[in-house]
Model the fold of this input.
Amino acid sequence: MASAPTTARSRPSTYPVWFFLPAAIIYSALFLAPTFASLYFSLTRWTLFNSVFIGFENFAQFFREPFLIQGLMNTVMYAVVTSSLKVVLGMGLALLLTSNIIARGYLRSVVFFPVLVSTVGVGITFTVLMHPTQGMINQGLALIGIKGPGWLTDPRLALYSVALVDVWKGVGLATVIYIAGLVAIPRDYYEAARIDGATAWQNFWHVTLPLSRPATATVITLSFIGGLRTFDLIWAMTKGGPGFASDTVASVIYKQYQAGFYGLSTAGNVVLFVLIGIIVVPLTMFLNRKQGHE
Amino acid sequence: MTLNLKSMALAGVGALAVLLASGAAQAQSTTLTLLIDNGPQTVPVFEAYVAAFEAANPDINIEIETRPGGGEGDNIVKTRLATGAMADIFTYNSGSLFQAINPQQNLLPLTNEAWQANVQDSFKSVVTSAGDVYGAPYASAMGGGILYNIPLYKELGLTPPKTWDEFMANNEKIKAAGKVAVIQTYADTWTSQLFVLADFYNVMAAVPDFAEKYTAGEAKYASTPAALQGFERLQQVHDAGYLNEDFGAANYNDGIRMVATGEGAHYPMLTFAVGAIEEISPGNTANVGFFAQPGNSADANGLTTWMPDAVYIPKTVSNEEAAKKFVAFVASPEACEVRNATVNPTGPYLVKGCELPAEVPPAVSDMLPYFADGGNNGPALEFLSPIKGPALEQITVEVGSGIRSAADGAALYDEDVRKQAQQLGLAGW
Amino acid sequence: MKRRASIIGGVAAIAGSFVVFVIPFIFIILMAFKDKPQSALRDFSWPQGFHLWDNLVQVVTTRNWMMITAFINSALITVISVTLLVVLAAMVGFVLARRKTRMNGLIEFLILAGLMIPPAVVPTIWLMQGLKLFGTLHGMILIEVAYNLPFSIILYRAFVATIPRDLDEAAIIDGARPLDVFFRIILPMLWPVTVTNIVVQSVGIFNDFTNPLYYLPGNQNATVQLTLYNFQSQYNTSYNLLFTNILLITVPPLIVFLFFNRQIVAGMTAGAVKG
Done:
């Protein structure tokens, strides 16, 4: 016990605050500073050389952008569709892959592998597969007598086709997270349920589902944020088209940047950041609160 | 790690440029970088230019770098100019896109170069900003209109139309014969703009001061019936069911293949596409003809013309003298001969002393009468006004796919134009 | 009977997963084997003659061997930024989990903000220009570090919380300096979560498309994802080359997958449940 005061004294240097420094410098310089700068530049007309202060004109312009309201809706729809499909399919696949099924290793591998593959590569591949007349998907459907739709060329479908590819690529991660959650559920609960004479469905509804809530929270949060920010898959597959039909906030931001409207693009950034803030913060709080109740 | 050092060195290019430009250090052998777009017409031509130039100037070595075309390319050019990381020489559009890269701030004026005497004034005007000329043409002038399949026309007994009504009548016959009347290729969104842009000769025929008033913010597409007509025509061909089934997913190459092989009859396009036929559909160059986009009356039939891209030198050039030497070569009749030997010609040249070869593809010979005495031609809007809205290609995809009406599309484009004019800081917006 | 049901279910699952997940990859491979005219049909068919080698040579040698430059660039960016991420994030995660100060709340807020807020691209470019970092590999590396720090820190903080304090306290009594304690004792103990970090972040950074698109222009700076993008316009008549390119850049993730399959799943598990 004699050493206790020593420990107390030297603890500050064992966990030195300067350990934060290198990370803090990089993070502040390349992330925080630009984020704060964006609040100013979003109020200017900006050419990188000089900026003219124009107040909220950019925001007004941004909301006059063709289909920006639809772009906002698209962004939210995309996030909702991808994250809910990932929850449902991820949970289903995880149940399947933790059950006593043959070829479990193979199945886990094929489901997970797309997570690791290049998004642009996946986008290009599926763009070819989804070609309305020559694509493999519609030719396959034609074999069984179905005339496939214009997956990426029908303005009503394009966004959802991209979302499906996003789910194809990302469901493996959700599955792995769920597998981890399911494996962590103590067997006792199932034992108790069995003794109570619970059916498989009751088992799922009253034991598996509530006890895998942390996994659900993780999957929803990760895929929702990812969905709201999504850019690369949309850009590789439709570039926001046809027309503006599959534009999301991120693709509108990129188009404004490409056109040299730097102030406007930055205003779009602020819009996206507010959008994420007002959706994700309450969502995470909700998910975590529920979690606390368990 | 050497790569890392190399890129650090690149960051210092600005400083280096100052040193070299001062003329203190003239190395024995100079290396220049040249940034070109990756178009199938551009790459082989510049490879041939560089080979010929290096043979004549053994002390200068030129390294070619390529970039994508279209909006992606605009972005790269703008960012590299803005960050001082531009190559020593680069190619870029003339006209309104040239105005948008801030020439006075970024580019070296070439007004007083000797070769300027040989360049046609019509070209000089589209690479001029505040009285200084900044670029040299490296290709020929082009027409924007409609490529058509000659065998199909013969088979159905059709003649190239002089009015829009004749054009639509031809389309009806082609459709009745079970063929695709009009090819559209919206996977490459830029190709969707042609019906609107190539209609501009007809706009000017009806409203001679449209370009001026448009630049001043007084004339709008939506409220000028002649200007609105381009959008309406785009909508008409869609609504009449003349398009290829996969118009939403087909790309530019598909379009050229279809018009060259007769899978489709008409493809609205710029004549630079003529040079690409041979590569995409070998042996079919002779099967593709061309006519200007027809207007309301046969008497006022004329061609909307496009000026070619130009080569420019940025202010950050590492060796001004060597770069100017190369640009002078590109603007010389020798370069035209190199070009003729490399790719099929796509239109008349803009440099005095440049001749087209005796044998030209039919699509090019169809175009020459518009340039000859008594022929009618006029530049596209982007060469008369610095403003071109960046979203036109998305809007024309919408109108051409039946997602949006022509009137709505034109109104939306007016809004897009306003945004661009404000960004350029033009008066009256 | 249960056994039979599970076999039938298994066969159905194998067939379903084959159609959904495997056929797209087979399609990529078949396309990479075809010659140009056949690949232009874009159908699911057996290649007529094997042209993989020709296609590979052509893809690799295009544009002055741009593919090689791109692989070197991507490898440098990935290796260096992941190394920095592991060390810096472990340092922050370690101290954050151990030391309760008033700053913790602020730091955790900033970490969450980093996970959620999309980076402000143009201001970042403007700032990087000022710092002479724009369009450079080291600038790109620092960007990847900055953008991925929050996730790595969260993984580390959660893991450090599960390690008993006794271990580092024992080391202090021996009079070791903080850096020694960290590198000799703490970092090795964090190995399981470090593997997760390495795998997740290296795959993410190697496959990153958006950030190099914005911050790393120029051919000499191409990364493998951008080659695909740059070649897309050039290869739009040559689907065989486009798909050979896709195949080529899928090889590194495949290798990672084959070697780390178990660790990925185990690590994800640890990270996901605790994070």
